[in-house]
Amino acid sequence: MKENNYLLLRKRMIEEQLIPRGIRNKRILEAFENIPRHLFVPEEKQSYAYEDHPLSIGWGQTISQPFIVALMTQLLEPKKDEKVLEIGTGSGYQSAILAYLGCKVFTIERIPQLAERAQQVLESLEFKVEVKIGDGTLGWEKESPFDKIIVTAAAKDIPSPLVHQLKIGGRLIMPIGGAFHQELIIADKVTNKEVKKKSAGSCIFVPLIGKYVERK
Ligand code: SAH
Fold first, then answer.
1. pLDDT at 4
2. pLDDT at 216 over 70
3. Which of 62, 124, 156, 199 is the most buried (most CB within 10 A)?
4. Residue 171 phi, psi (nearest 5)
5. What is the model's pLDDT at position 130?
6. Is residue 64 annotated as part of the catalytic site, yes or no?
7. Is the pLDDT of residue 186 over 90?
């Protein structure tokens, strides 16, 4: 498919999937229009990259549905120059959106092949994103504290290192729940002892796998 056709698919995705569902932030919509999402998925799936569902990217993992990426981005309220930690790099697409918005993005992926592929795509598009292979439930101590944290895999609770590595006044977005039902949680760190949580609705993500994940 030609680049022009992909641009048309992106415009249609914005008109049909994002705007009607409440994504109104101009900068976020601009990021979705300009970032070639199809480059973040395996070649044989590129023509499906702009459809209204998640897509397999190999190793049992998925790139989230466009609307979910947009919703999480909008809820995160990313500002220019903010330091953002992402857990679950996957394809690298969410990182690209945040980098486009001017954030300093640090992202961790536990599957080396995915991390490497994401890094290559991000570099080829000239996005400056720090990609690390490892267990994101430990956070990224050396680069902390973060203004914002976004976790793109689900667990029963927020891994405690992530709460510690979030600035006071900072926000964390994460799907919380079991394998079949999760809520997208907005967690605002009010003081060192108080985190205020609210739900932004239900969602389905692949599981977060790591040291600071409760097993019940
Ligand atoms: N944000 C991604 C979606 C990723 S899917 C995108 O834009 O494409 C979730 C990813 O989280 C998977 O790639 C999975 O391997 C990864 N993951 C799961 N547990 C993890 C952990 N503890 N640390 C880092 N990555 C993890």
1. 85
2. no
3. 62
4. -130, 140
5. 98
6. yes
7. yes
Q: Which atom of ligand 1 is nearest to the CA of 64?
A: 3
Ligand 1 nearest-atom number relative to CA 213: 22
pTM exceeds 0.90, yes or no: yes
Which residue's alpha carbon is at the smallest distance from atom 16 of ligand 1?
88
Tokens describing residue 172: 């964390």
Cα–Cα distance measured from residue 82 to residue 189, given in angstroms and rounded to the nearest whole number: 16
CB 95 within 8 A of CB 105: yes
Confidence of residue 179 (pLDDT cuts 50, 70, 90): confident
- Residue 21 CA to ligand 1 center (angstroms) comes to 25
Which structural domains are found in the chain, ordered by start? 53-203 (3.40.50.150)
